[in-house]
Amino acid sequence: MRLLDKSSSDFLYQQVVEFIDKQQAQGALRPGDKLPSLRKLSQQFEISVPTVKQAYIELEKQGRVCARPQSGYYLQAQMARTLLPRPNNWAGSMPVEVCCRSLIEQVYEAVHIPDTVALGISNPVNAHPPDKALARLMRSVLSKVSEKAVSYGPVNGDPKLRMQLAFRYQEQGVAIDHSDILITNGAQEALSIALQCVAEKGDVIAVESPCYFGLIELIESLGMKALEVYTCTEDGVCLTELEKTIDQYPVKACLFSTAINNPLGSMMTDEQRKALVNLLEQRNIPLIEDDVYGDLYFEGKRPKPAQLYSDKGLVITCSSFSKTAAPGYRIGWLVSGKYEEQAKRIKRAQSCSTPMLQQWTLTEYLLSGEYDRHLNVLRKKLIFNSERMRALIAEHFPSEVCISKPKGGSVLWIRCRSHVNTSNFFHESISLGVSFAPGEVFSPSGKYKNYMRISYGVQWCDRIEDAIKSLGKLVAEYPAPN
């Protein structure tokens, strides 16, 4: 048997977990089978028994194995009921203004309530914070730049950071120059600039359904209207439904997260993404690509940016380091396609520039290779947390509840029975010390009242399990209709 790679950045117990994963994928281990004993595996891998036990405990937390007294560990079937696509139940929408702004504000406010388990915010970095590495690099940068750290920077951002980002796009096959990239104050500013480049007040913007509530509120704040397009829990936005939508309504632009939708965790294949771009560019409809989760894929290779498939320059890609490295730094960017000059003018009028100290620090983080090493560990932690959270929800929520199985990101999308309105017990949940995001904030027309979004981008502790128990009790005790 191949020994573990003790020089790898991955923890040894994680490599043991990966070994069990492969055994299960190859059919060598099936639900009900007994796992190798702690001593046997420790001898085969030449590692300590506690390391093997740590791996088995991790698998047990994920609900994938169970320990039987005086017997050992056994592989068990996944308990979670996976949320499947429901295209036949899709009810089409019309362009609308946001109808749940007050609730969106409450969701944001709940994140900062002291002593509350904040499961209502998507903050993947919290699962594996790189704060010490970034603090060290920032001190190093400060020692070199002195007074420049408090000066204004170029409107389009630090050239070295833009160069590093351009290299990363080039590695994925996207032929862009660093001059094509505009650094912004987080992805939200990038998305705001993108929308202003392609649409005006009163215009219709097609969005995924469900869709991240921050995008819905941004569209509303610009005086535009949102139009929902059915989005599959596995494959992302449905192209057939999209084509019907743009035939029926005057869609000015599309704003989609094709690589890891929030809150579904769905992901289009590269082929589907190419077909999407071709469909829209045939109609001369711009695509704004919200790509903040693209680096947090769980399997295979990173999904290709939609930019790769654009022939007319109608794709604007927006992203940031907020979901992968430093949410507090507020460093984002956009690749503006044919709208480069317009984007720069809007950026100059809107915020003039982006803080340089954070840009320089992140440039060093990229150059050192630490960012990619951090991403590798972060993805593994999120995969573990996802399975662990799904198992907890399956254990403590009613059996009728269905749970998404995300392909990346840091959130789960949960469907309760149809009579349950998750907004109705939002404040009671806060009083119990746990916050979540009610489903209706992910729809401009107020759909998904019986859904909720829960984040697994957390530092795991006993309070997480207590929080899930509390939420499960609220769902279970929700009064049924007479």
Number of structural domains? 3
Strand order of the largest sheet: 4-11-10-9-8-5-6-7
User: Averaging pLDDT over every residue, what do you get?
Assistant: 91
Report the uncertain regions: none
What does this protein look like?
The protein has 482 residues and is of the alpha/beta class. It folds into three domains: 12-75, Orthogonal Bundle (Arc Repressor Mutant, subunit A), CATH 1.10.10; 87-128 and 373-476, Alpha-Beta Complex (Aspartate Aminotransferase, domain 1); 131-371, Type I PLP-dependent aspartate aminotransferase-like (Major domain) (Aspartate Aminotransferase, domain 2, 3-Layer(aba) Sandwich), CATH 3.40.640. The protein has 15 helices and 16 strands. The strands form four sheets. The chain has an eight-stranded mixed β-sheet with strand order 4-11-10-9-8-5-6-7, sandwiched between helices. It has a four-stranded antiparallel β-sheet with strand order 12-13-16-15, with helices on one face. A two-stranded antiparallel sheet has the order 1-2. The chain is globular and about 70 Å long. The mean pLDDT is 91.
Per-chain topology:
Blueprint: H1 12-25, H2 38-45, H3 49-61, E1 65-68, E2 72-75, H4 101-110, E3 117-118, H5 131-145, H6 159-171, E4 181-185, H7 186-198, E5 204-209, H8 213-221, E6 225-232, E7 236-237, H9 239-248, E8 251-256, H10 270-282, E9 287-290, E10 315-320, E11 331-335, H11 340-350, H12 356-368, H13 370-396, E12 402-403, E13 411-415, H14 426-431, E14 434-435, E15 437-438, E16 451-455, H15 462-476
Parallel strand pairs: 3-14, 5-6, 5-8, 8-9, 9-10
Antiparallel strand pairs: 1-2, 4-11, 6-7, 10-11, 12-13, 13-16, 15-16
